[in-house]
Amino acid sequence: MRDAISDPIELPDPHSDASIGVLKTSMSPKRMALKRFVNHRAALISAIVLVCIIIFVALAPITTRYGVNETIFPASEGPNQNLAPFDLAWFGTDGNGRDLYSRIIYGAQVSMLIGLFTAIGSVLLGTLVGGLAGYKGGWLDDILMRVTDIFLALPLLVVLVIVRGMLKNVSWVSTLMGDPNSVRFLVILLTIIGWMGVARLIRGQVKQLKEREFVEAARALGATSKRIMFRHLLPNSVGQIMVALTFAVVGAIAAEATLSFFGYGPDAGSGMTSLGLLIRDSKRAVPPGYWWLVVFPGVFFIILSLCINFIGDGLRDAVDPKMQQELK
Amino acid sequence: MTDATLSIRDLRVTFKTLLGPVQAVRGVSLDVHPGEVLGVVGESGSGKSVSFLSIMGLLGKNAVIEGSAKVGDVELVGANQKAMRRVRGSEVAMIFQDPLSALNPVHRVGAQVAEMILAHQRDMSKDAAANRAVELLDLVGIPQPEQRARQYAHEFSGGMRQRVMIAMAIANNPKVLIADEPTTALDVTVQAQILEVIDRIRKEMGTAVVLITHDLGVVARMADRVQVMYAGRVVERSDVHNIFHESRHPYTRGLLGSQPTLGRERLTPIPGAPPNMLQPPSGCAFRARCVHAAPQCAGDLPELVQVGLTESACVRANELEALV
Amino acid sequence: MLRFIVRRLLWAIPTLFIVTFVVYCALRLATNPLASYARANPRIAKQPEKMAQYIEENGLWPGVGGYIRGYFTWLKGFLTGNWQVSIKGSRPVWPNLKDALINTLRLGIMASIVGISIGLALGIFAALKPGRLRDTAVNTGALIGFSIQPFISAVLLQLFFAVQWAKWFGEPLLPTSGMYPPGHTGFDPVLMLKYMILPVIVVSIQTVAAYSRYMRASLLDVLNSDYLRTARAKGISERRVLVKHALRNAMVPIVTLAALDVGAIVGGLIISEAIFEYPGMGMFFLTAESNGDFPELMPWMVIVTSSVIIFNLLADLAYAWLDPRIRLD
């Protein structure tokens, strides 16, 4: 046999006839994930729709037709309450003569901001606690699991209401969090409740990664725990963190809507509104049959939730380690 | 050959995938005789497992199977589901690589063996089947079979689990036993025990055994005849001694040459990688990695021809003797 | 196995005590029972001796020590059947709570049965042909279902089936509130069912979405497993493969989840009950909370949290019974 060392064979030229069929070079995991996300049609469409919504909502004074508390014309000029849509106001008006279309946009602003800040807070806190618990394990981990188990199994509204009541009545806390009816209070409240779900996810992820060989290798090379956590575990968890972030946003928006529905929402007066408050107001519009006040906010809310949910689903598929072997 | 238990002729298996049709098996023919062990050797992707999974009907709906595979007089390719089910487990039985995942984790082991029995011997009572299951566990060398029959798969060690799989496979006295990498997941010491069990059964029951593996050591120990597969085709076939000492195919030589042995300082792997079966190369699939490749290798698909003491699918086989 | 059960039970009991203690402190902090009592009974509030008596009877001493003493006072009363009475008119808590509990259980169990069966069926339907149209449809449908929060679907359904229907056809098709028409007495199952249709639909949407996804994922996992291939290699009938092997294994995680969900029924229907004015545990909670009625809220919370803890335990036990690998714990 030939000696492969002194007379090495050149690897076949990829363009020559003899090597037809040798696989192309592989892609990095990030590119693979991106490619998979883009292939998930619903997620892609949702991302585009969501971006449109965000642009629309962010450019509020330009895209709205009236202010949030502004009547479309003064009552003195004629009846302005509960007008049906398409005539004078695109989506109709509410009981105070205000333009529903504009109010939906302003409400979306509030809700989405609440969602965003809550999600960031929950994910930061949850990643910290969950990551530590997953990495250290032991009794810290056990207790965390038991506590979050019970908390997560209790009805959300009950937990929200009770914790809200607690925080309201403890003086130093309420100075920190502001007026119970303010947006700031709500964001902090939702963060306090929300980090637990994220912590569970990240803990699970870290536990899994901890067993992987590259961690063992890093430790064998003398890496400290801190280094392992920041340079190895965290970057590999980015995918799951992003998924958690997405679902945290939609969870927060839904929680705000639930709270507002029952009167615990960010009602600072001055006519400001959120999606949840709009839906709460819509309940009153059912008996007289003012359908536009019910349908437009409700459908908008559903579409917004749907988009974020689809994106989250797409992200989850994109970073799922099981699916990373599909392209063999 | 007329007394072959299993006869495969020109078997082709193509998978319909999103990227296009993948030709996993491209014309395989073989015979296995009663009491004989046919070793099937090849790399991952050579089609060695797929060939046999296909005739058992265990591939998914996206597999297109053509050709012929006969067990006795029964044709397996293209048979309907009912006919396949009659053959599976009674005429032809299969054992797989990883016994932990191949056994159902929530059913007791004895029940799983009994299920195999009851599937094909309908008139047996449940109790009789359970007793027979215990007998079978004893036959494959599992100590305290009555107690162990009531246990679950995770309570067994790897070697014991594989014995359970074997017991299950031979429950209905099959004519053919296909063992797909049965020892790959096991320790070397346990490997020898399992192979010994298979060997004993073959002698006692006259079963034809197909032993699929990538481990040449296993083949050397167990096989009567060996066929080497590459890229969906059989490239060489002979009895075991000749394959090891009188091989006439560069791929086989390459496999033998890449084995680590005492005294050799460097490993000599075969350079390059197996071809992509989406677009298989023309002619001999090995030519891209073959030291002796010549223009005629890119022509028609080479057929197995008796050259010297082996059947080889190398068009230059005659010259090989002189070259090395 | 027995050791497993005993261990879990031993965990559950102290957990119950700790949780009820935490709940006690949280509720006292949140509702301020003394102030709420004073608010509800302004005349008595003006009499300091009566207030002091109230504090003594109900263990409402302030401070950390006071809370601990208060908890045990409450606990003794609770366990001996000597429950504290509501701040409104001193009426006993249990009769209303019992009715609320029964109503919620009716609604919850019916919605669970409907939702879980439909959800599982859809999940199986999707998993049997993965990647094809039916699979994408079920998946997308589930995500849409998740995005439809109960209060939105409730309001929209009310609008459609009652108000709009009445406009088009003269009379509402389905009622929108309560359990019976106002003024009705006695037990009428058919009428009750008519009133429950909309709430059940609203609650089931989310259940169907969740369980279709669970079952699809679980069944797909199992269908791709090695042991299923072995089962087929045995030559047993396809029906047996699907039922005895595939479904049997796929159901294990689902039974656990279902057990947890059942535990959450008693407190989990608040939103739907509120919208449909259905007199269940949800309405009880909301009314009590807005009044700050601690004596009514505590038993309510005890029932809800105990239910969660007990069903948590049952879920663990069920998992171990169904999956022998877990019993090693």
List the helices and strands and how they pair.
The complex is a heterotrimer of chains A (328), B (324) and C (329).
Chain A lengths: L28 H11 L1 H18 L1 H4 L36 H37 L1 H16 L2 H14 L1 H7 L5 H28 L2 H8 L4 H37 L13 H10 L6 H29 L9
Chain B lengths: L5 E12 L2 E13 L4 E5 L6 H9 L6 E9 L2 E2 L5 H7 L4 E4 L3 H4 L6 H12 L5 H14 L5 H5 L8 H12 L6 E5 L7 H18 L2 E6 L2 H7 L2 E6 L2 E7 H6 L4 H8 L47 E3 L2 E3 L4 H7 L1
Parallel strand pairs in B: 3-8, 3-9, 6-7, 7-8
Antiparallel strand pairs in B: 1-2, 1-4, 4-5, 9-10, 10-12, 11-12
Helix pairs in contact in B: 4-5, 4-7, 5-7, 7-8
Chain C lengths: L1 H30 L1 H8 L1 H4 L2 H11 L4 H17 L14 H35 L4 H15 L2 H20 L19 H35 L2 H8 L4 H26 L1 H4 L1 H6 L5 H11 L2 H29 L7
What does this structure look like?
Chain A has 328 residues and is mostly helical. Chain A has twelve helices and no strands. The longest helix of chain A is centred in the middle third of the chain and has 37 residues, at 100-136. Chain B is an alpha/beta fold and 324 residues long. Helices cover 34% and strands 23% of the residues of chain B. Chain B has helices at residues 48-56, 81-87, 99-102, 109-120, 126-139, 145-149, 158-169, 188-205, 216-222, 240-245, 250-257, 317-323; strands spanning 6-17, 20-32, 37-41, 63-71, 74-75, 92-95, 176-180, 208-213, 225-230, 233-239, 305-307, 310-312. The longest helix of chain B is centred in the middle third of the chain and has 18 residues, at 188-205. Chain B is globular and about 65 Å long. The model of chain B has no long low-confidence stretch (mean pLDDT 88). Chain C has 329 residues and is an all-alpha fold. Chain C is built from 15 helices and no strands. Chain C has helices spanning 2-31, 33-40, 42-45, 48-58, 63-79, 94-128, 133-147, 150-169, 189-223, 226-233, 238-263, 265-268, 270-275, 281-291, 294-322. In chain C, helix 6 crosses helix 14. The longest helix of chain C is centred in the middle third of the chain and has 35 residues, at 94-128. Chain C is flat and about 85 Å long. The model of chain C has no long low-confidence stretch (mean pLDDT 85). Chains in contact: A-B, A-C, B-C. The A-C interface holds A 42, 146, 149-150, 153-155, 157-158, 161-166, 168-170, 250, 254, 257-258, 261-262, 279, 282-283, 286-289, 291, 294-295, 298, 301-302, 305-306, 309-310, 313 and C 15, 19, 26-27, 29-32, 140, 143-144, 146-149, 151-152, 155-156, 158-159, 162-164, 167, 176, 260, 263-264, 267-268, 270-271, 274-275, 285-286, 289, 301, 304-305, 308-309, 312.
